[in-house]
Every structure is written in structure tokens, then in C-alpha cells.
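task queued by scheduler; priority normal; single chain, no ligands, no partner chains; default sampling; output format set to C-alpha cells
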Amino acid sequence: MAVDLALVEIVRKGVDARANVPSPDPFPRVLRVEIEPIEHLTYRAKPTAEPHFELYVDEPQDRGGNDKGPSPITYFLTGVATCLLNQFVRLAITREIPISVSSMTVKGVFERTVGGGFKEIVNEIHIEGDISLEGLEELAVGAEGYCYIHNTLSKAVLMTTELYLNGDHVVTRAAGPEA
């Protein structure tokens, strides 16, 4: 994975700034996304902080949708995974850890019933590079700590992080009510 050197300093400043925010945050942020119904189960989402992006949300035809965009659950799991992944990459850049992420998979285990919900969300991260197991565990702790989504969901659902280093499964971390 290529790292844009021009962005490295921005990443460092952002990580440092977050590390110095007191808890609880005296100035909580608000992120807003405007949702526009298009047709049937198809929606256009526009993040107000990033107005140059539009996301289309739908359901597959076998669930009554028009199949014009990923389902809400797909976007949800994508957000869960990429938020955590961003923190791994940001901290590796900031700490000058010589690793790269070769791939990531997220799996959501849920009950498809009225009143159902997610039972577990598993993030599998495949990392290549030169880092000790202790260093990788420390990186994982930091990444999970910086990830708003992981912190929020771990209060309600089992969040599992499976780490692979140079092709070998090396660490399993669990957080949440059943951890």
C-alpha cells in the first residue's frame, strides 16, 4: 500500500491532536448525513461535511429493492472495518512502524428476525512487515482506542479483531459485553 508522503504530516498532526483532547470532549462533534428518498427502497445519502460525495443505498432485488446500490448493512460493516483500518494505518505512520496492510475482511453475525441484531462483528486484518507480537498488540490497542465506531459498538456487541502477520494468525482481541 502506497503512502503519500505529503499526507504523512497531516496524519501525524491529526493523531497528536486527538491524543490531547480531554475526556470527556468539551466540544463534541456532530456529523450529519442527509438522506433523500429516490424510489422505492433506493436512497441518496449526502454527507454535509463532504458534499462532493453521494452514496446510493438500496436492497437487492430478492429483498424487494432495485439493486442500485449496496444495502445499509453493507455500508454499516464497511464503515466499521475502514474506521478501524484507518486507525491502524494512521498509528503505523505516526509511529514509523514498517508495516503495510495487505487486506481486510469484516464479518457481521446477526439475527435476521424482528428485534434481531448483530451478535458479533469480526475484523480480520492481514499485515505484512517487521513488527513484534507485542508491538502489534500495542498497535491494535491504540487503533481500537482511536476508532469511534469500535468504541461505540463494543458497548453493545462483541467486537473481535483477528490479526494476521506475514500470513500467520497471531492475535485475537475481543471487546464488548461478552468478551
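post-processing summary
- The chain has four helices and seven strands.
- Strands lie at 33-39, 42-47, 55-57, 99-110, 118-129, 158-165, 168-175.
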